[in-house]
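User: Please fill in residues for this 462-position structure.
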């Protein structure tokens, strides 16, 4: 394997351009389009959250796409072709979803009929297909990161790529804010439609370009896949039943899954409601609420950097994660306080502070996650944790929209109190996550899962 060149920092940053593109798309699909649906078009929050969540509910397909890229190369390459094809398809689907959204809004204005529900179902299908295309692109990309890296530089690669994801979110927020600056509060639908259509044309095209720039020539030069596949059992050979035997061997797995679920729900349930909160409670125009993603992203970048280099080495992984959960809960208290007193500057500051807390929590949880992963089955464990997070993100989207709908019915859609059930639930979830984390025993997990892996390998030799 010595003949393979090692990736340097420049190559790592270049690879991060793909994640930056995904960050930009998340701003468009989860932030801007959600805000337009609820605040500008009057689509009920639960309906909006339900269709958006479809792109996460198809997350189990990630395993299949990973196996496809292992077994069926495209153009002689196992990963790159899937990355490019998936990026092209999700860019087209993002534009198509917006066009369906206009039809849904028009039908809702006429009343809830069978035709209306048919358009809503089509919109949900569009988001599901978008999620499949993202999975088809992002899963082989993640496998590419494994193929081109070695154990001693993999953590550096992941750190750089994760940071570029946050940079993409910030860039997407700034770009969206600039392209939507002419859309003021209560703007005519024609103005909203024209600006949003332009945004969902230019940015996805740019993201496809980033996907190409990030990966062109990388696999052919750096991939160790062919050598490793001759001596290492690949993920496509690990059946679901065998993987589950190792994953469920220790009760610590269930505890960590519970923690991960509560933490993810606590951190992301506000995602479908934060921008509508800014528009409804503070009267912020769409460009201003789009910039909230930039403030959150900058705070998260700060939290990631400070925590990785300073907090974790001093406090440890579990205390750092618990601290992050507590700080995030305080952030939501601050966001509610800002709404109570009606101060935009305080709201913006609290969004930034929540971003810092999210960075602290994420860094602690990710580093702890590496301790809850066996080197021999790293792909299986990381895939399982990733799937758990994706499903939790879907539940967070549904839960945020559902709680906003509930709050709107109780207190009225145009009031601060409509959003309190969402933020209050997140505080409870984050505190519950911190409590669960106290019960996770990393050493017990490693001992039992390694024993289960040994039993599995012994069976294969018989």
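Assistant: Residues filled in for all 462 positions:
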């Amino acid at each position: 394997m010595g003949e393979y060149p090692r990736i340097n920092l420049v190559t790592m940053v270049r690879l991060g351009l793909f994640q930056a593109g995904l960050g930009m798309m998340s701003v468009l699909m989860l932030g801007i389009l959600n805000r337009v649906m609820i605040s500008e078009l009057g689509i009920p929050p639960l309906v909006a959250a339900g269709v958006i969540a479809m792109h996460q509910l198809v997350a189990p397909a990630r395993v299949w796409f990973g196996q496809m890229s292992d077994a069926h190369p495209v153009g002689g390459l196992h990963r790159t072709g899937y990355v490019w094809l998936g990026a092209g398809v999700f860019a087209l689907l993002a534009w198509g979803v917006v066009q369906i959204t206009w039809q849904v809004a028009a039908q809702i204005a006429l009343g809830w009929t069978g035709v209306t529900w048919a358009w809503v179902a089509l919109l949900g299908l569009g988001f599901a297909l978008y999620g499949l295309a993202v999975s088809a692109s992002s899963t082989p990309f993640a496998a590419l990161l494994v193929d081109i890296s070695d154990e001693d530089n993999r953590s550096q690669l992941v750190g750089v790529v994760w940071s570029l994801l946050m940079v993409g979110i910030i860039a997407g927020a700034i770009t969206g804010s600039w392209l939507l600056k002419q859309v003021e509060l209560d703007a005519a639908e024609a103005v909203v439609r024209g600006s949003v259509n332009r945004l969902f044309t230019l940015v996805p095209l740019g993201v496809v370009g980033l996907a190409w720039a990030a990966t062109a020539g990388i696999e052919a030069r750096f991939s160790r896949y062919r050598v490793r596949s001759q001596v290492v059992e690949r993920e496509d050979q690990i059946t679901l039943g065998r993987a589950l035997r190792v994953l469920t061997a220790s009760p610590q797995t269930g505890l960590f899954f519970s923690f991960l679920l509560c933490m993810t729900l606590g951190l992301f349930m506000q995602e479908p409601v934060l921008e509508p909160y800014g528009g409804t409670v503070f009267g912020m125009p769409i460009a201003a609420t789009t910039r909230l993603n930039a403030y959150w992203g900058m705070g998260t970048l700060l939290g990631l950097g400070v925590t990785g280099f300073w907090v974790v080495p001093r406090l440890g992984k579990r205390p750092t994660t618990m601290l992050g959960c507590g700080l995030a809960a305080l952030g939501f208290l601050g966001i509610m306080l800002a709404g109570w007193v009606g101060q935009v500057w305080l709201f913006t500051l609290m969004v930034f502070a929540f971003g810092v807390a999210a960075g602290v929590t994420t860094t602690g949880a990710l580093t702890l996650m590496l301790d809850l992963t066996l080197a021999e089955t790293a792909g299986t464990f990381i895939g399982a944790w990733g799937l758990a997070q994706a499903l939790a993100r879907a539940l967070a989207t549904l839960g945020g929209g559902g709680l906003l709908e509930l709050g709107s019915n109780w207190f009225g859609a145009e009031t601060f109190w409509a959003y309190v059930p969402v933020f209050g639930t997140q505080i409870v979830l984050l505190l519950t996550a911190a409590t669960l984390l106290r019960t996770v025993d990393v050493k017990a997990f490693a001992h039992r899962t390694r024993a289960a892996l040994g039993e599995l390998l012994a069976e294969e030799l018989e």
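For context: Confidence is low (pLDDT under 50) at residues 229-238, 375-379.
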